Amino acid sequence: MHIDEKELINDLKDETRRAMAFHILVKSYQERLYWHVRKIVVNHDDADDVLQNVLLKVWKSVGNFRADSSLYTWLYRIATNEALSFINERKRKSRHLLDEGSEFLLSTLEADQYFDGDQAQLKLQKAILTLPDKQRLVFNMKYFDEMKYQEISEILETSVGALKASYHHAVKKIEAYIENN
Fold it and tell me: What pTM, to 2 d.p., does this model score?
């Protein structure tokens, strides 16, 4: 579905058309946001919860959206921040059980009944989950979402050079993990 972003933003700010515009926004971006969040939190149910929080935040704050960036970039930024907050909260709560955040995510991946990948995909996902949060996020956005460094830079508010370095280190670590496991 092609949407006119400027018109959609105007409709989202107009109380009489807001509900319909929000419905269009959800239909247009929900799936991409879900998969972005899912790659961060790993678990389907957690991704659904986080996505619901993202959409609630969007509903509450869309009136303040200044259009300094594209609507998609703004939504991605909210989804990224919400997913990272969720992961950090989970790590904090489970710290007494697991010392490493990646161990927590690996156990979540292995217990996820919705993961339907083969052994190669599982190995790749395990390798990705061993990365530090920032490298994992950059790798997922670049490799799976095929985003340009400039887009990622706007979402994560990080320089393109730093993103390229993060991606490079992530690829090297994933290659090493796959070779050694």
Answer: 0.78
CB-CB contact of 46 with 84 (8 Å): no
**CA–CA distance, 130 with 174 (Å, rounded to integer):** 8
Q: Which of 127, 157, 122 shows the shortest CA–CA distance to 139?
A: 127
Q: What is the pLDDT of residues 114-151, one digit of tens each?
A: 766 677 777 888 899 889 888 999 999 999 889 999 99
Q: What is the DSSP string of 121-148?
A: HHHHHHHHHTS-HHHHHHHIIIIIS---
Contact 11, 5 (CB under 8 A): no
Sign of CA dihedral 63, 65, 70, 72: negative
Query: At what angle are helices 149-156 and 160-180 packed, to 10 degrees?
Result: 100
Three-state secondary-structure class, residue 25: helix
